[in-house]
């Protein structure tokens, strides 16, 4: 839950038509088209500045770098559309990575480890979901709490240790693609999951009810949608998928340390918002988020290839995020600025003020 | 809280005893809210001190106070923003950039007076805070998205500006690096100064008209607008002040840690500050809570950190315990507000008959 949400609910009830138009589906469609143009522009920029951009090797690296973030963005999309947020994703990832390292260090068989990680993922998601739905606590605060708690569990079980003696058959996912192609393993997982999440969100009753509860929780409840149950299930799905991302990250780096994935939660949220999903809930598409992932990964990769400081990629990402929130609202914004100027003019009469009146 | 707020207005103005009674009740609950966390803090200190008396030695208390100072200070700014039902995620990047740029001045301009450096840090913070405030208030777009974007942008600027460089301790004057060490009657000067600023902020929020209006905005933005509160201006002010405070926090961070590179503030500084604010009883939906509570929240998280150390429990536990405490705090807070709403409902039902 976002601090601003109630404002938006009020806005949908009695707002000037311009303000409402921001949430119009036609505008969202336009944002996704715009984003597609941005992605193509990034591609052209990448190709024109570096001959390596379109090589198979680079495409592999691109998928490798952003695969886990992209995977975690999928459940996050559904959660944000349902009107909530999950900031604990990177900590669940870190916790799963720590479990993998710890249990592997104890010589557990890999299959059993996977089962344990799956169960802990379910548990982590269920704790989030139950605190939010059954106790009615704000998800922003709850998941900041579990962000600390789950990262803390990773710290406790792994301590200062680093475990890196993973078998090559697993650690290979950081070196070669699926079936020796240029698609990294995490990118392949993302593609499969994106299709599944896209179908669930856009073509099933459950998906429609996620939109409904994001647009208006009360109306959704009175329409007979089991809001609490579906939200809990979304958090559980997020827990499981972030655990999976943690496993992929661990094998890719061939390293399990307690800081794995530290700070990635905001990247995941940024990718989803970049994809045109409304932070107020009720609006957004998987296609948009996939484009958001491509823009995010493309910008970072292009900057890496041009020897620009790659970490400064956060500037264009942040800029795009601002554009994503301002452009659909541009018409009302200019109107409001004009009215503020006009009001100022009236309070202290001046040529500009009277001209606007 | 929202239940309680929506229930309060229907009372008849002429119903004086009920009015006073429920105000007393509300006050009591608000007091309980801060008392609760003070009790937790007291118990924590007590238990730790019984097990390990060294914990309450003056040098250890000084250590806790100095280490908490920056968090508590930035929590004041964050409190103002959260009370208006907004959030500022960008404080950590403002702090990091301000720390590098302001402390870097000592190396570039020889003999620059320390107050000037603080003024520069404040200015940097105010500028970024104003940018956030302008976008949120005038654009009326969600603050979470805007400040997430500015967090990225400022972080990127920081990385470009700092590059591989760092401000090293040897370039800083003795008077500057001593700031965390100076004590008056055994109390760190820094802690007194920060406490004074927080006290001023708490007084502003509690007693000034514009301070009260921040609560009104957070309780019901549309209602506040209809009641004639200049919502955009107040939200803008809250963000600007929050940025300015984070800027000063950056200068203090530099004085404290002395080696300043891109990692100043740490990865999750913003979220830790928000956690302190929420642990301190400030509702994440805005409209309630106090600056003093937020400062005590920061102090509690800082104390836990040091206490575990003193008790010989590995550092690796403190994050889990802090996370658990945050969950406990918001759960208790929810319990209190549900009870408050029920009590008010009962009272108004009784008054109606």
Helicity of chain B, in percent? over 70%
Side-by-side strand order of the widest sheet of chain B: 1-2
Derived from helix and strand composition plus strand pairing, the structural class of chain B reads mainly alpha
Order of helices and strands of chain A: HHHHHHHHHHHHHHHHH
What can you see in these coordinates?
The complex is a heterodimer of chains A (357) and B (353). Chain A is an all-alpha fold. Helices cover 73% and strands 0% of the residues of chain A. In chain A, α5 packs parallel to α7 and α6 runs antiparallel to α7. The longest helix of chain A has 27 residues. Chain A is globular. In chain B, strands 1-2 form a two-stranded antiparallel ribbon. Chain B is globular and about 75 Å long. Chain B is mostly helical and 353 residues long. At the A-B interface, α1, α7, α13, α15 and α16 of A face α5, α6, α12 and α14 of B.
Task: Give a brief outline of the structure.
The complex is a heterodimer of chains A (357) and B (353). Chain A is an all-alpha fold and 357 residues long. Chain A is 73% helix and 0% strand.
Please give the structural blueprint.
The complex is a heterodimer of chains A (357) and B (353).
Chain A: H1 5-13, H2 17-21, H3 25-49, H4 56-81, H5 89-105, H6 110-133, H7 139-158, H8 168-171, H9 185-203, H10 205-215, H11 217-222, H12 227-253, H13 264-274, H14 286-305, H15 314-326, H16 330-347, H17 351-356
Chain B: H1 2-7, H2 16-51, H3 58-83, H4 91-108, H5 114-139, H6 143-162, H7 174-177, E1 183-184, E2 187-188, H8 189-207, H9 209-219, H10 221-226, H11 231-257, H12 269-279, H13 291-310, H14 318-352
Antiparallel strand pairs in B: 1-2
